[in-house]
Recover the amino acids of this structure.
């Protein structure tokens, strides 16, 4: 499969709500999708929407030098990886909810905030991946 055709699902995990966003490898743009309450809904969406990769925000604590992650998140991640037969990538999601709040402006519902946070998580992954691809292509052109 050509990398440009990949469909991504961004995930902002929370104990009460899970924000979701979609993105694709061609336009490199993430958009908020919706908020769900459990892993079964994610599995269903991945299958229905033919998602190629899941990008989930890893909730690292700001004050912890060792960057510990909660056991509940690790259990969720482990179960998600076992139930899916596609790659699951994690990215640092510190401050994604705060950034989502600033994008939403006035006080919106938490559900909207979680989907926007998922969009920000996925967009950071797509941006970083796009920059790495551009650097590789530039280097290949230099030495061709």
């Amino acid at each position: 499969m050509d990398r440009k055709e990949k469909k991504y699902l961004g995930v902002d995990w929370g104990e009460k709500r899970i924000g979701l966003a979609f993105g694709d490898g061609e336009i490199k743009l993430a958009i908020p999708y919706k908020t769900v309450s459990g892993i079964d809904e994610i599995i269903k969406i991945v299958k229905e929407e033919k998602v190629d990769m899941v990008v989930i925000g890893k909730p690292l604590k700001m004050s912890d030098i060792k960057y510990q992650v909660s056991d509940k998140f690790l259990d969720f991640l482990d179960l998600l990886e076992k139930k899916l037969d596609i790659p699951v990538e994690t990215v640092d999601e510190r401050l994604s909810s705060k950034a989502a709040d600033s994008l939403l402006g006035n006080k919106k519902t938490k559900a909207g905030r979680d989907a926007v946070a998922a969009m920000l998580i996925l967009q950071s992954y797509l941006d970083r991946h796009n920059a790495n691809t551009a650097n590789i292509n530039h280097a290949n052109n230099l030495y061709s």
Notes: The helical segments are 39-48, 71-83, 96-104, 110-142.
